[in-house]
Amino acid sequence: MIGDNVVPAHAPEDLQRWRRIHRDRLIGERLDVSLAVRDLYARQITEKLNQFFPNLAKLLVSGYWPCNGEPDLRPWLSSVRLRCGHVALPVIAKKHAPLQFRLWWPGAPMERGIWNIPHPEKCIEVNPDIVVVPLVGFDNAGYRLGYGGGYFDRTLAAAPNRPRIVGVGYEQSRLETIHPQSHDIPMDFIVTECRVREFNR
Ligand SMILES: Nc1nc2c(c(=O)[nH]1)N(C=O)[C@@H](CNc1ccc(C(=O)N[C@@H](CCC(=O)O)C(=O)O)cc1)CN2
Ligand SMILES: Nc1ncnc2c1ncn2[C@@H]1O[C@H](COP(=O)(O)OP(=O)(O)OP(=O)(O)O)[C@@H](O)[C@H]1O
């Protein structure tokens, strides 16, 4: 196994390989956590989101439909609507292009996209104020390791009004560094079951 504190060689294919090894390891390790414990972590993350973002009225929050052991924050997304906020979900409308954000509400008609992940079928495209991003891994400087498509990086680089970016994941997914590249967009906050990290940039 390649240790996470070993700087990979500079060739892009070495970094890609390093990221793939750690991505697979971290996804495997979070799927090894029991459902009951993941459920507890999701509730602890929700509490921290509520403490840090007490007032979401009139704001548009993008979440995600959980897969691969990601924290299930759908109850929190529903609660955002009860607090007069709006909710969107990300959609891969085109490969290797920025994500779309489509308005979502409980009971919205859904269809399945990449990896069978459900997303709203009606195309009401919106620009979120806050984007909640699931983390496969994260590092001490607030950079995210995702599923390797570069989708969130492309999307946030192209976003018209830079939203606040909140990475959510588990403390066990922390790496010393993901060896950030110029295309990697850092998070403004990282929320885990243990703590909230705020990065003032
Ligand atoms: N729940 C959830 N929904 C989400 C995301 C997410 O992270 N979590 N996304 C966040 O972006 C988007 C989906 N992101 C994806 C990113 C990559 C691949 C993918 O096919 N990866 C390839 C490897 C790509 C490569 O190495 O070039 C693979 O696994 O084979 C699929 C979905 C939108 N929806
Ligand atoms: N702004 C961008 N413009 C063009 N290509 C990009 C951009 N951002 C990332 N990419 C491409 O996407 C590839 C994968 O990026 P990276 O390994 O950072 O994905 P990731 O953040 O883990 O994935 P995801 O966001 O889909 O979960 C990079 O090798 C890069 O070529």
UniProtKB/TrEMBL annotation:
<keyword id="KW-0547">Nucleotide-binding</keyword>
<dbReference type="GO" id="GO:0005524">
    <property type="term" value="F:ATP binding"/>
</dbReference>
<dbReference type="GO" id="GO:0035999">
    <property type="term" value="P:tetrahydrofolate interconversion"/>
</dbReference>
<comment type="similarity">
    <text>Belongs to the 5-formyltetrahydrofolate cyclo-ligase family.</text>
</comment>
<keyword id="KW-0479">Metal-binding</keyword>
<dbReference type="InterPro" id="IPR037171">
    <property type="entry name" value="NagB/RpiA_transferase-like"/>
</dbReference>
<dbReference type="GO" id="GO:0046872">
    <property type="term" value="F:metal ion binding"/>
</dbReference>
<dbReference type="GO" id="GO:0009396">
    <property type="term" value="P:folic acid-containing compound biosynthetic process"/>
</dbReference>
<dbReference type="GO" id="GO:0030272">
    <property type="term" value="F:5-formyltetrahydrofolate cyclo-ligase activity"/>
</dbReference>
<protein>
    <recommendedName>
        <fullName>5-formyltetrahydrofolate cyclo-ligase</fullName>
        <ecNumber>6.3.3.2</ecNumber>
    </recommendedName>
</protein>
<keyword id="KW-0067">ATP-binding</keyword>
<feature type="binding site">
    <location>
        <position position="70"/>
    </location>
    <ligand>
        <name>substrate</name>
    </ligand>
</feature>
<dbReference type="Pfam" id="PF01812">
    <property type="entry name" value="5-FTHF_cyc-lig"/>
</dbReference>
<keyword id="KW-0460">Magnesium</keyword>
<keyword id="KW-0436">Ligase</keyword>
<dbReference type="InterPro" id="IPR024185">
    <property type="entry name" value="FTHF_cligase-like_sf"/>
</dbReference>
<dbReference type="InterPro" id="IPR002698">
    <property type="entry name" value="FTHF_cligase"/>
</dbReference>
